[in-house]
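Input record, target 12 of the design panel.
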């Protein structure tokens, strides 16, 4: 299973935000994660639409986590960004083996097992040593107050 680059970035954003107690700007997130600002802004927008982050505009604005975000499963984030599509597309163009092939079912079983394993891990658990301190060191300077906008 291969995650989209935007899903990888989204998981890193959520982890970085969970590691502190304040909001970060898109520019701070972009610099800390080494991701182009425009791409990161699109990822943050998707996270916000799905309720994984909260955004506040203005001088003291930024991106933060809503209450209880540390209990969010990694599987929920991956599903929201990756969608529920199958690993292979047997319909377009139609595969001549689809009537008697067992590959599609095996891949779907593997995909469900992959997501079930991610469901067992919360965002908060991703902050355990040694990741937590490393994440805190990624953002120079103070974070904006009000981690829960």
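The sequence produced for target 12 reads:
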């Amino acid at each position: 299973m291969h995650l989209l680059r935007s899903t990888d970035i989204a998981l890193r954003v959520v982890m970085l935000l969970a590691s502190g107690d304040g909001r970060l700007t898109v520019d701070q997130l972009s610099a800390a994660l080494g991701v182009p600002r425009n791409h990161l802004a699109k990822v943050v927008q998707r996270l916000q639409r799905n309720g994984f982050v909260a955004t506040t505009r203005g001088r003291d604005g930024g991106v933060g986590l809503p209450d209880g975000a540390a209990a969010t499963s990694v599987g929920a984030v991956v599903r929201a960004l990756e969608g529920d599509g199958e690993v292979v597309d047997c319909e377009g163009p139609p595969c001549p083996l689809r009537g008697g092939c067992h590959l599609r079912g095996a891949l779907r079983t593997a995909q469900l097992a992959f997501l079930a394993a991610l469901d067992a891990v919360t965002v908060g658990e991703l902050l355990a040593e040694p990741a937590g301190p490393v994440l805190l060191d990624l953002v120079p300077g103070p974070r904006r107050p009000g981690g829960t906008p």
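The two ends are 35 Å apart (CA to CA).
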